[in-house]
Amino acid sequence: MRIGVMCSGNGTNFENIVRTCRDDEVVLMVHNKRECGAKKRAIKLGIPHVHIKSADENEIIKLFQAWRVDLIVLAGWMRIVSPKLIDAFPNRIINIHPSLLPKHKGLNAVQQALDAGDVVSGCTVHYVTEELDSGDIICQGEVPILPDDTVETLTKEIQRKEYSILPLAIENVKHKSKIKVN
Fold first, then answer.
1. CB 143 within 8 A of CB 155
2. CA–CA separation, 160 vs 121, rounded Å?
3. Of 31, 97, 104, 126, catalytic
4. What does the pLDDT look like over 110-165, one tens digit per residue?
5. pTM metric for this prediction
6. Which of 109, 131, 130, 129 is nearest to 118 (CA)?
7. Number of C-beta neighbours around residue 41 at 10 A
8. The dihedral of CA 71, 125, 37, 130: what is its sign?
């Protein structure tokens, strides 16, 4: 499968996809911040990459079509995508979110979980739809919330879980299955 990845930040999930999804090929990474960590990782890994502003989705669509991308992975893309992008790649865009959806949608999900007094959090890979963080769930992984957890410590544990479930989710997309990872 030919994968396109969209990143805004450090790119650790992007690098994880490149290193672990060996039966697939990451053919292009789009980043919306000119000098983000994801760009440095793409250079290190030899993956073609391009900086495109989030609002320029027509260019993103053209590039992913030109590279014949089968699946787009939003791996830390910190922007809401438009219906235009979703319609261009129906059921072919997935996102990783740092909560056990449907709980704690949107920004600051880890803080939301702590504020709610949850005893467990985690992460979810889901299909992207027009409604924020509401597409069909592909894979989830749970992370216990410890009494002394902070946003930083819980975020780190959730990121570790993301590294294990995102490659599984990509594999499951090929087979259209749904799993939960504890």
1. no
2. 13
3. 97
4. 999 999 999 999 999 999 999 999 999 999 999 999 999 999 999 999 999 999 99
5. 0.94
6. 109
7. 21
8. positive
